[in-house]
Amino acid sequence: MPHIFDAAPIPALQISGSEDTIPVRRILCVGRNYAAHAREMGKDPDRDPPFFFAKPADALVGDGETVAYPPETENLHHEAELVIVIGTGGAKIAEANALSHIWGYAVGNDLTRRDLQLAARDKGRPWDMGKGFDRSAPIAPAHSAASVSHPYTGKIALTVNGETRQEADLSELIWSVPEIVSILSHSITLAPGDLIMTGTPAGVGPLVPGDICTVSIEGLGDLTTTIGARV
Ligand code: MN
After folding, report:
1. What is the CA(52)–ligand 1 centre distance, in A?
2. What is the pLDDT of residues 80-136, one digit of tens each?
3. Which of 101, 201, 209, 230 lies at a 20 to 30 A Cα distance from 89?
4. Quick one: three-class SS letters along 99-148?
5. What CATH number is given for 12-230 in this structure?
């Protein structure tokens, strides 16, 4: 049967050093996954099971792009994050097999309308409007695990206009990459093109129009985003 509208294009994540792209299926995100960030958000950094939220796949923004300051917020925040690219789908994936489901990794920025997120959190409402707004997922070109191995350690940092705001090490993740993949796959069936943003370290803070925000992860390069005028 024909569609009554043209189908939306499939969002494509660039691959570093290649003309090929990754067709993005979903953007899944881990809440609080670094102890110091959990504390700065007023929560205990315990080993309660991780929780997940999502952004629409078409929130994807490439490296070097401008993101207009989004509507309905006075407190847009940056969040530097390691992004997992799922290459082989599966459900109930054992932690010991998790790495075989990962195609590679990328540098991401979980842009957040913090005022909307916290208002929703405090009322027990969903986070979607705080987290899943238009163009809320800048992600740099991905690297295959075959080319960079699996990054368990290495510096993750974020600067705004050249000033360091976030700096930590991937080894500080409360829930490791294999644990995240395994736990999430027990809740939903993962598929190729699913991206998982793994949580942000301490130091989240505001962005304003004109800011240039750069996330870097050792071995995975940089992601630069300019914040444009309010829409
Ligand atoms: Mn985040």
Report:
1. 10
2. 999 999 999 999 999 999 999 999 999 999 999 999 999 999 999 999 999 999 999
3. 201
4. HHHEEEEEEEECCEEHHHHHHHHHCCCCCHHHHCCCCCEEECCEEEHHHH
5. 3.90.850.10
